[in-house]
């Protein structure tokens, strides 16, 4: 009986650890230049790839802003609800081979994301190769 209880406990602990180490969920974006919290992005999986959309804008004055500099079908869409991370694929501990768009200037960058513990997410946007870019650290929202 003790072996069964121990085995069940280990399985539950493993499952809890595995789900806590997932990139999906809601994340507070922090501007790497000002240190200010800007928005909440929900990261989700769809058809085996990872996407992220803005589900909340923290500055009340910017909640109704449209993305006038965004390319293609995103042009003039509301920033709230905009999918800014597209097509990331899992590669070991990180997700890459996708893009991230900056709704402030409409620029699209290559992107990779990686967990830094269960509640921090390093998000890197870059041009060409990853040395030419910048990283923001987002924090998980309950």
Automatic annotation (TrEMBL):
Transmembrane segments: none annotated. It comes from the Bacteria. Keywords: Signal. InterPro entries: DUF2147 (IPR019223). Pfam families: DUF2147. The keyword RNA-binding does not apply. Residues 1-20 form the signal peptide. Residues 25-140 form the DUF2147 domain. This is Signal peptide protein. It comes from Aequorivita aquimaris.
């Amino acid at each position: 009986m003790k072996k069964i209880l121990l085995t069940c406990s280990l399985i539950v602990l493993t499952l809890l650890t595995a789900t806590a180490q997932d990139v999906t969920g809601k994340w507070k974006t922090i501007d790497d230049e000002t240190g200010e919290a800007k928005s909440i992005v929900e990261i989700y999986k769809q058809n085996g790839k990872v996407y992220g959309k803005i589900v909340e804008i923290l500055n009340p004055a910017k909640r109704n802003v449209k993305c006038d500099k965004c390319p293609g079908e995103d042009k003039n869409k509301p920033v709230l609800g905009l999918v800014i991370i597209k097509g990331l694929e899992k590669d070991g501990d990180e997700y890459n081979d996708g893009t991230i768009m900056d709704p402030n200037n409409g620029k699209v960058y290559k992107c990779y994301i990686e967990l830094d513990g269960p509640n921090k997410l390093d998000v890197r946007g870059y041009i060409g190769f990853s040395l030419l870019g910048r990283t923001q650290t987002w924090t998980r929202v309950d």
